[in-house]
Amino acid sequence: MAADLGDLAAFVAVAEAGGFRDGARASGMSASGLSEAVRRLERRLGVRLLNRTTRSVVPTEAGLRLLERLTPALGEVEAALDVVNGFRDRPAGTLRLNVPVSAARLVLPMIVPPFLEAYPEIRLDIVAEDSFVDVLAAGCDAGIRYDERLEQDMIAVPIGPREQRFATAASPAYLDRHGRPNHPRALLDHACIGGRFASGAVTVWEFERDGEIVRIDPNGPLIVRVGTATDLAIEAAIAGIGIITLFEDWLQPHLDSGALEPVLQPWWPRFPGPFLYYPGRRYLPAPLRAFVDFIGRPRRAA
User: Fold this and answer.
1) Residues 179 and 196 in one domain
2) What is the DSSP string of the chain?
């Protein structure tokens, strides 16, 4: 009951994307070609793998079990074929990265353009989200995370700034109306623009000064999804809705322009910068190896 490798790959593409159209975008195949490949695979196996409706495509129980086994197996096949890359003058192929929105905004813009210029035969496929996911299960080669969210069995390589700060700010007009807090606990009497993670948890604001750590639960008129709606939070702060806490680099242009004013600056906490992380395998796909080597090279500041 041997199945065609292409049909198996088509099934995985559709199942992971949740539809034929999105699967076509991810795989580079046509939606009709994917549909025919899945039908062919189901006929060969004698079992339905996908439940199809006009609104969604969802794996059946049999499809889920097959997907669980196929995803790592196809990854190994891809890695085996990638050995040929070692005989090329320049590595080629697709490198899939799962990164937080903050890294896509603050870290990758300084790295991606020169990397793609150095390796024109590599295609970067970047998924920016703030959910904590298993990068391998998500079909990615590597991810970017901060130290507290790294998995223990992964290799971690520094990428981007080695130290960052969270900054707190508000519009001058808001502070003129409501006063300028001189201690983090004073924020409890202010309108704060909060954030919510994909898990549903609301962000806790942390401040540090001379060894004293203060954590507060912000309260205010606006809560936004961390990462994906951050620009809305910034615009609300500029409009005078309340006080915001965010990566200093993200707020810096607005601090420089005067649209936002620093708040509690001596209390801004520092934390280690992000890491590129990937499985501790003896063999790395050539595009990932090239990327790891590239971020380890010293480069001139822009």
Assistant:
1) yes
2) ----HHHHHHHHHHHHHTSHHHHHHHHSS-HHHHHHHHHHHHHHHTS--EEE-SS-EEE-HHHHHHHHHHHHHHHHHHHHHHGGGGGSSS--EEEEEEE-HHHHHHTGGGTHHHHHHH-TTEEEEEEE--S---TTTTT-SEEEE-GGG--TTEEEEE-S-SEEEEEEEE-HHHHHHH---SSGGGGGGS-BEEEE-TTSPBP-EEEEETTEEEEE---SSEEEETTTTHHHHHHHHHTTS-BEEEEHHHHHHHHHHTSSEE-SGGGPPEEE--EEEEE--SS--HHHHHHHHHHTS-----
